[in-house]
Amino acid sequence: MFQEALPRIGRRRALQGSAAVLVVLGLLLWWLLPLGESSPGGKVVFSTGTPNGVYQLYGDLLRDALDKDMPRLDVDLEESEGSLENVERVATGQADFTIAAADAVERYEDNGGRGADLLRGCARLYDDYVHVVVPLHSDVNSIAELKGRKVAVGQPGSGVRLIAEQVLAAAGVDPKKGIEPFSTGIRNAPDMLEEGKIDAFFWSGGLPTSAVTTLSQHFDVKLVPIDADLVAKLHEPNKGSRHYRSALMPADAYHKAQNGIAVPTIAVANLLVTRADMDATLTEGMTRTVINSRDGIGEVVHAAQRVDLRTAIYTEPLDLHTGAQRYYRSVKP
Known about the structure:
Layout: H1 2-32, E1 42-47, H2 54-69, E2 73-78, H3 83-91, E3 97-101, H4 102-110, E4 119-135, E5 150-152, H5 159-170, E6 180-182, H6 189-194, E7 200-205, H7 210-218, E8 221-223, H8 228-234, E9 245-249, H9 255-258, E10 263-275, H10 280-292, H11 294-298, H12 322-330
Helix pairs in contact: 2-10, 3-4, 10-12
């Protein structure tokens, strides 16, 4: 009887081992494959940006990735003027997700904007770089030399307007009286510069921004430097943002505009933003797709190549959403 029991014990252990393997394989498939039919459904509104900007292009490509990962989810992209409008839309429930620069989030919180306490981060994405574009023949070679000029400073509600006014003020130029300001963004500013209607325009966006690339390919332009001393002034209380940092516009960002020379400027991080009451499973899936689609989106939006799992969790000044936390814990080594 002892000899007959051995095969039974062996079969039982084999069955138990097989069951364990199936459980492990099931878990691996659950984490590695798209959420599919068990994924969240319904509709979400994603606030993007201007048609010629990186936010809009990134949103288009992210929606394509979400269609594959969460096929039951309908993503409605809505254009905006940029970061400030995006933050307000999410905070007040007009949108569910958005991309916004950290300085715009900080400004909204500092001003006590409605729903500011509900804002949460999902991921740190890529950096925006401040562009100050002038014709190549212009005698403007510093921000201070914009005084008295016709300058496009971005639309109200845009992150461009926020940073342009602060940079001008830090350089000793009154953004309302020291220049002739034009409330124009990246949609129209390049054409206006080429036509001589303005002397310069501000833009803050990922690299490269297609509208700047296109302009530089048929109209000679240069980028005005923003030196480290000016950035230091922007770190002073009530003068700018602690999220600004000195950076170099890479020499190859705009071949036709920089003549192979890197240009000192300001960089600020972009964040994927939602609200605290957003469904945790949906937010986890959104965060997963953002990270996993980096390479695919990065083939078109080069700035997206900067999305990095190691830094994505740093969404200051926002706390991470619980769904995003769940995702980062699931992939933690």
